User: What shape does this take?
Amino acid sequence: EDQVTQSPEALRLQEGESSSLNCSYTVSGLRGLFWYRQDPGKGPEFLFTLYSAGEEKEKERLKATLTKKESFLHITAPKPEDSATYLCAVQGSSASKIIFGSGTRLSIRP
Amino acid sequence: DGGITQSPKYLFRKEGQNVTLSCEQNLNHDAMYWYRQDPGQGLRLIYYSQIVNDFQKGDIAEGYSVSREKKESFPLTVTSAQKNPTAFYLCASSDPGTGHTGELFFGEGSRLTVL
Assistant: This one.
């Protein structure tokens, strides 16, 4: 059964303090791994797609990487506006279903 | 601007009542999805539709129903058979024609509370 586990559940950082969020997954035939950002009371916003091990994507202070078992979302020198819940999702060989993790709630203190 | 519109944003329901959540998109996407989000949990798939007049059950379809009569619209009915309907409901769409079926565009969500 396809499964996505994110850690930590919550992370509090000081502004400028870099860190990483983890997404471990098991899926039959990975077609894509996705990162989303969700602000409180809003719908998730798409950030990245990673398709194969070794691939990396960057956007501003965020960098996503992928191995055969996990993905990391690295945040460099974060700012308070980066505070949000970050969701990881995978799409397996059954291309129509996308499985989400429970998310990491990131809080950046000024 | 193109996007997904969900309504209502907040909805209160008495036990035993059916309610319908609206989802409209003007992105010309073929695929549409309904997810449920509970505190501390990931998004769970209720129903999805890849083309007009066709839809499939997701992981937690019991107590819900959908229709897909138009490409732009994918309403979700929460029936009285749903035992724990209080949750945040999210509608999404994607464009399989681009090959990026996992890149979902979400609406702002509808928060349903059963009194």
